[in-house]
Design goal:
Blueprint (H helix, E strand, L loop, with lengths): L1 H6 L4 E4 L5 H13 L3 E4 L6 H7 L3 E3 L21 H7 L5 H12 L3 E4 L1 H5 L10 H6 L2 H15 L6 H17 L4 E3 L13 H12 L4 H8 L1 H6 L17 E4 L13 E6 L2 E4 H6 L9
Parallel strand pairs: 1-2, 3-4, 4-5
Antiparallel strand pairs: 6-7, 7-8
């Protein structure tokens, strides 16, 4: 299978929750023989186990980690993964040990705070312009779900959300490579483009400086992909992919929503015109 997809031009692979250790080991070995990368949204396999197998990246920060599930059965996805994060003492030696292990093994993490924010009581609604991009049925679906979440009793997602983004910060402070994703799934509130802007705001809210947040959202991804000599930062000799924002992000991160123009591969795009042309077109997936 990997031979086939390599021939088709694929350069990386993603493993998913129920994969077995032997399967993941084979994928990593075969991909690395071709100088390709493997990432994963795990459950059946712990982060530490995946790092020992040589995985390159792990999706969703620490939200998908099952390392802290008591009596976890090897190779099986536990039903108590979320509760283990609710109960987790993030100052414990086992947490510090896992972070160090990932850094030592040079395993990158992709943060997807935007999708987990949608499950978390007390968080704001998606940008108004993002909601306008949704088809009417999905906009209603999103708003109904957001309302239900806002009324939850004994909600656990706020606890997990705060813990996990603190761990992302500690991972970076320990020398780890953190990248920004958005995962536009959930129940409709994570819309491509708008969610990338929201991601920068969430990283700053999590304690990163605006400079760190921008680097996580740009250069770090380019470095991971081995493309940092061409893209990822504003430097002489690199491709001039730029955005023009009406505001000062160092004073107000919400100014990132005022993105007037985007320049990609030498072509300038009018953001307002693009947004106006994409109202009520975004479906569930």
């Amino acid at each position: 299978m990997i031979d086939y997809w390599s021939y088709e031009g694929v350069t990386s692979y993603k493993a998913y929750m129920q994969i077995s250790p032997s399967e993941l080991s084979t994928v990593i070995d075969q991909a690395h023989q071709r100088d390709q990368k493997v990432t994963a949204h795990l459950c059946s396999i712990t982060y530490r186990e995946a790092a020992d197998l040589g995985i390159d990246n792990l999706e969703h920060g620490f939200f998908a980690a099952t390392d802290f599930v008591k009596d976890k059965v090897a190779g099986e996805c536990p039903k108590t993964a979320h509760q283990s994060l609710v109960d987790l003492d993030i100052d414990s030696p086992e947490v510090a040990s896992l972070i160090k292990h990932l850094v030592d093994k040079k395993v990158a993490l992709t943060s997807t705070l935007t999708v987990y924010e949608t499950y978390t009581k007390g968080r704001p609604k998606a940008y108004p312009l993002a909601l306008e991009a949704l088809i009417p049925q999905l906009k209603t679906h999103y708003e109904n779900n957001w309302q239900k979440i806002s009324q939850q009793q004994d909600a656990t997602w706020p606890v997990v959300f705060e813990k996990m983004r603190k761990l992302e910060k500690r991972f970076v402070e320990a020398g780890g490579l953190l990248m920004a994703g958005t995962d536009p799934t959930g129940f409709g509130g994570v819309v491509a483009g708008f969610s990338n802007q929201r991601m920068v705001e969430l990283l700053v809210e999590s304690g990163f400086s605006i400079e760190q947040a921008i680097k996580i959202s740009s250069l770090n991804g380019a470095s991971y992909l081995g493309r940092d000599k061409l893209i990822g930062s504003v430097e002489v000799g690199k491709r001039a992919d730029l955005v023009l924002i009406n505001g000062d992000l160092s004073q107000d991160t919400s100014a990132i929503q005022q993105m007037q123009y985007v320049f990609k591969q030498g072509v300038g795009y009018d953001s307002v015109a693009l947004i106006n042309a994409t109202k009520q077109v975004v479906g569930m997936h």
